[in-house]
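Follow-up to my post from last week.
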Amino acid sequence: MAGGKEIRTKIESVKNTQKITSAMEMVAASKMRKAKDRMDAARPYAEKMRSVVGHLANAHPEYKHPFMIEREVKRVGYIVVSSDRGLCGGLNINVFKAVIASMKEWDDKGVDVDVCTIGKKAASFFARLNSNIIGKLDDYGDAPRAHELIGSVKVMLDAYYEGKIDRLYLVFNDFVNTMTQQAHIEQILPLPAEDDESLKHHWDYIYEPDAKNVLDELLMRYVESLVYQSVVENIACEMSARMIAMKSATDNAGDIIDELQLIYNKARQAAITQEISEIVSGAAAV
Amino acid sequence: MGMTTHVNIVSAEEEIFSGTAEMVFAPAIMGEVGIAPRHTPMLTPLKAGEVRLQTAGKEEQFFYVSGGMLEVQPHVVTVLADTAIRAHDLDEAAALEAQKQAESALKDSAGKVDYAKAQAELAEAMAQLKAIEHLRKTKR
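User reply:
Got it. Predicted complex:
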């Protein structure tokens, strides 16, 4: 029986791979549900924060915070959110493509670029590109705590305060639904001004202790909440992308097993036929 | 029934409280403040301590916050609670850590980035993924 044993071993090995991919699919599916819950739980804070900052943009503070002042752009910063692990289809590649396209635009204008990476994939990609990475966060896990992100955000905010960068972008995957994730670039600094006519009358907050301190604290938290939200959203995207990738891998393994099974059956049939004809012709010769 | 104001207490990771109260006490950075309904707009950082709500019927509710921000609008009080103790030194240490991590990633100094090459590489990766997808579909 030609190659029968080899084919059987091959089928076994593909079956083992299929077991792994289908297990990964199920793990990703359950993690995705949790990630989505976390995404929803983080939403009220982001909304409240946005409305406070919205009020603030319409107030008439005696003090203009640097985050609200548009400057001439000499250098830009990107916070790129990616996954820590691979096997999730084109998820990270889509983000990198969007970032690179946007970076190239700035580069053509003679503007330099600084990067802060969140997630191992972004770190290795931008390190290989020789980008100027000024902040980095790896291994944030499936359930990052908001305060774990403080450091990498602060690096960028400090660079903005010191005038090293004049604009800050946040790049992440937007969770549209389980099947669709969309790479998304958002300008976070300077704060894009919103116009709300209903709040235009002249008023201002009482600031305790003073406007500068309060705004520093508030806007720092605002940016952190944006970044936290995007990281949580990116995890949900990662899980759903992995789920889909692993599902198609499992299907592929099934196809391969079917094909191999067919080849194996044919080979077995051929061997039996050959054996019979050998016996028959042997008997006829006697 | 006395006047009430709407109170939201949220942290970056979850919503903690949403409802009405007759009086809100919060540990503002300059000392504890009591907010009655129709208070003038105010914005202040909070220090670690207790946020106390007097709900209708003189019931009291307590929430511990490790810091955060308090926004007061005439009919809404919003507490943006932190999830961890914040201090300038701690933040500074975290930032340094992120920077150190970045430096270890950049063993060879940051040179000029070849964006055209990067785009080509990514396009190739995308093409590979597309080809796999295509192969899968045509095989059916």
